[in-house]
Amino acid sequence: MKTLPLSVLFSCLAFPYCVTAQEWKNECIGYYQLQLPDNLEVALYPVEDFVNPKKQPESDGDIKTRLYASPGITFDKTYYKQKRGVVQAQFTELKYGKYELGISSESPELIGFSAYKERAKDNIIFWNNVRKQYEALNFRMFKESIMPEAEFNQRYGYLIKDYPDAFTIYESRGYTIYINKERRLYHFWGDYQKNTGDKSQTAEKQLHDSEPEVLSLLNRFRPRKLYEVPTEQGFCLPYGFIAGDSGHEKRNMGVTYRLKDHPDVSIFFQDLGPNPGPGEQRPYERRPDEKMSAKDYVTYFWNRRYGHSFREIKLYGKGFSSPKIDHRDGAAAFAKFTRRSKEVDFGYMAYVKGNAENTEPGLLFYVIRDSRQAKDQLPMDKDELEKIAEHIVSSIKRR
Length: 399
What we know:
The protein has helices at residues 6-14, 47-51, 84-88, 113-142, 149-156, 203-220, 294-305, 382-395, and strands at residues 24-29, 32-37, 40-42, 55-60, 63-68, 93-96, 99-103, 158-163, 166-171, 174-181, 184-190, 221-223, 234-237, 240-243, 251-259, 262-271, 312-321, 324-325, 328-329, 331-338, 344-352, 363-369, 397-398. By secondary structure, the chain is α+β, with helices and mostly antiparallel strands.
């Protein structure tokens, strides 16, 4: 029987959550692995928001422009933008190669994949109908020409091709892969290409040109369990793995976890991949500015990116430190902050810069307490929070 020394036992009695007695397990994100507590949940797209989305009709005059609510990443069972489960997951980024990823929570029952394919098809038909209605409106009001039917079909036509446990929708400017594995949906939303104006830019050509890479991805992708760390070369997604890639693909993989028995505590790790340039300066690009030092970015994160709406924020305890992250010199800070709603909370954030040659990526990590999520229990003690953070950051290494 496993027993604890008296010093550890008394420490655990003093704090509701005890790091010393915590069970740790290896988990992987991107090309990295780290040790995490064994009682986590992961922020993902709620599966119900894909298979049975909430009705949210919107119109522009007489033109109906929306039928259903858009899905989003959260810890909750459905996505509502202002909910705290969404706020806790706000920095999640799921990007790999040319794809943005949409990974769902686990369904309590088998997913009706054929019905889901029909919903995806209906969505394309709906948007094509919206386009035609706007064309007709612009013709009536401004005498703008209406696109010939053949050109419309070339530009907005689509093909759906089935694969084992998957289908892909090919369009003239891109494609999306849909996978149904172990009661989860995995979406690979590909980048859209520019409209070249060339009549050969069709869904048929997209199928011809892109199917080899679709088949390659489908053959190399597999689901995985939380805390299952593959031994072969490849890339870890939440509940998924892509085997046999180059080991240095373009990516921005940031995953948010939350302690099941302490939902006030969220854990975030991000493999930023090769640095593309000016980072936070670019619209919609949430990456550290390569001109900042690691310490400057930690300061920026607390003051602007996370703490922009706080009443007060300041360094606490050890303040700045210089942990080793993946055997590199990083920067970290433990902070105390007062929220607008007056709750006092704490967080630990660490960052190590990527190098100019892009052989080592930027890595970002934090553990943050949001006492509003404590749910009828005391929030985690600040000292325990810091111990968890320091243990995890010391375990980060290339897989």
